[in-house]
Predict the structure.
Amino acid sequence: MSDTAARPGARERTNPQTPTATDHHVSLAEEWVASNYHPLPVVISHAEGAWVTDVEGRRYLDALAGYSALNFGHLNPILIGAAREQLERLTLTSRAFHSDRLGPFCRDLAALAGKELVLPMNTGAEAVETAIKTSRKWGYEVKGVPDGRARIVVMAGNFHGRTTTIISFSDDPVAHDHYGPYTPGFDTVPYGDLDALEAAITDETVAVLLEPIQGEGGVIIPPDGWLRGVRELTSERGVLMLADEIQSGLGRTGTTFACDLEDVVPDVYILGKALGGGIVPVSAVVADRSVLGVFTPGSHGSTFGGNPLGAAVGQAVVGLLATGEYQERAERLGKVLADGLDRLVGHGIDAVRCRGLWAGVDLDPSLMTGREASHRLLEHGVLVKDTHGSTVRIAPPLVIEEHEIEVLVDAFERILR
Ligand SMILES: *Cc1c(COP(=O)(O)O)cnc(C)c1O
């Protein structure tokens, strides 16, 4: 079959006689890639900082930043330098042996988080799984819950990844349905509802798992004081507080962790995405010895977790955050973004939720869907992703400049006209 043959679902072309490079690659993807995503019709081949270039030489402002995996920008010179240096030296040892990279990375990450131990993994979902296993094992061996009875309270509207256990407690039918039988042991309460959480905790509850801000949910910000309330409640009841900061952490909200916005320290940080600098998957669970100390040799593991390449990049990421420069940028420029978007409320935008350089924008649903808005913004040179219905999520790399935020807000203004 030729690359350009028309087939059901193929993108419409203005002139099928002369397919563009974009058409060519979109066709190849439609023919050969499983359809578990529905990408916008742009084919990226190069990138730098906050900008990407497509196969036809058009430039776009990247206001998604790999779902916050690219907090430090595309091809960040410090992170690329760390990766390149490591690539020429040592890439993998497995955890059967030590490498000269893992200790320094974990020391620095633990210091950034103010915790004692790090358990390195690769993807975010693996880190969430690790946190679930940690809290169950802690429940049986430290708290004294009868074996097999541990329960974990989770939030409605959550997104924690895609494994069979994690989607077992997702309430998004697209993520959840037809993957059963499901893993038991989870209780769902409304996000931001402290009374419901209190009522859900029993003697068998080992942990509360939450996103300090729900990213995939549409940048949903809980009521003021809720995180602090969760912290007090979990401490009183002897339950671990697990903060999934995979998307909210590492500078995005103007603080190192979103929990910092309420001066809350969870028992367990779950990190990923930006920890790999947009180069390699690096995730981690970070906690004190009283919690992560439950693991013994062989009780958990990963072939690639903690590999020297990932550790070198991860340590360089921690180095960038240790200066506070990126957090400061996110806070300062986040105000510019919020001001710009707030001006559009009532002019095609119903509501804006903003923390640092992270915004959920609810469009007037009678005007267009989030998907349509994403298409139109693409035509205006800005890349974003819709979440649910009429919501668009904005999360540019933290290296974005003030005048580039104006480009973004201008593009919104134009598509709403
Ligand atoms: C992206 C994300 C995950 C899953 O990370 P993967 O690397 O895709 O497995 C988990 N939790 C949150 C909050 C996320 O945003």
